[in-house]
Amino acid sequence: MKKKKQLMLVCLASILMILKSGCVPGDGSYTDGNRAGFFWGIWHGWLAPVSLIMGIFNNQLRVYETLNTGWWYDLGFYMAIISGFGSLSFFRKKETKKNY
Fold first, then answer.
1. What pTM did the predictor assign?
2. N or C: which end of the chain has fewer CB within 10 A?
């Protein structure tokens, strides 16, 4: 049962990474007239690990979108980075108190 649960988790994570990869920064979807803003900064912060791995294979992709609105994009990006990339906090173990 545990192996089946792990396999499902790996499959789900793989599917999510493939779906997320369509919105990575530096893909050419932003122009001088259409810059990435605050919410795109949050999204790109969550996608930073995926963008980093994809950047190894494609030199055009970056972790950070250079065509952005400035301070607001930076704020969103760093908020997502500091928050643990969105879902990593769900996998942290909670410490239990033991009575001796």
1. 0.62
2. C
